[in-house]
């Protein structure tokens, strides 16, 4: 397994253990992780505190507001908010785990990167460790609903 | 002029005076402003620090993570990131100033609210104080480019 996706999955598992929807993300630059986060919507009471948003903000605080030489690994297809943030941050490559037909914004719904109004489209690789990423979510919701 | 849009315009003007793209937003609950923000992308070095994101985060910190009885006034058509955040926060009504054919995500491009994957669509009122909102942006960019 990609070591970076393994770390994103570890963030997702930690989020689930905190009672958050288990999604995790890491930002990678020059072969090393410079920022990592799990979902903290419940803890922060902030509907925008998705793993990707927190990881991107943490990475931009370290240096440039543009992450042109950075890649993002996230365990779930980003929603439109996170997809647009990835574009605004000029992330180079996006690797995501499970597809999200219900709320995704990359391959589904508003398909944020697929419009002329999207001024930067990362390279996109979906379905990486798809089964494990999806299983985390399935178990989480099965235990709660 | 709507007193709330006047306050969003004041936030936009203050952002412009700080060297930021002049966009401002306020969140209104029960007839009073509970959060207000201007764009701080440059100051924070954070590409996600749009006025709407900052105002929504400030409002959710005050109470519930869902702003179901709140309205957002913003001087520019939200981008897809901010439109999706407005939906996630369950904002009741969105009032925006200038339309943004280049980067907007409500009436243009990915039209975030217009998909089945968007689970909450606010009432949307565009073009409020459109001329003044657009003029602020026009002057800002004319002075810099």
TrEMBL record, chains A, B:
InterPro entries found in the cross-reference section: APOBEC/CMP_deaminase_Zn-bd, CMP_dCMP_dom, Cytidine_deaminase-like, tRNA_aden_deaminase
All copies of domain CMP/dCMP-type deaminase, residue ranges: 1-107
Superkingdom per UniProt: Bacteria
GO BP terms, alphabetized: tRNA wobble adenosine to inosine editing
SUPFAM superfamilies linked: Cytidine deaminase-like
Cleaved signal peptide residues: none
EC number: 3.5.4.33
Gene Ontology terms, MF aspect: tRNA-specific adenosine-34 deaminase activity; zinc ion binding
Cofactor(s) the protein requires to work: Zn(2+)
Positions bound to Zn(2+): 50, 79, 82
Family annotation (Pfam families): dCMP_cyt_deam_1 (PF00383)
Key words of the record: Hydrolase, Metal-binding, tRNA processing, Zinc
Catalyzed chemical reaction(s): adenosine(34) in tRNA + H2O + H(+) = inosine(34) in tRNA + NH4(+)
Cofactor info, note text: Binds 1 zinc ion per subunit.
Subunit structure, as described in the record: Homodimer.
Record-given protein name: tRNA-specific adenosine deaminase
Species assigned in the record: Paramagnetospirillum magnetotacticum MS-1
Lineage: Bacteria, Pseudomonadati, Pseudomonadota, Alphaproteobacteria, Rhodospirillales
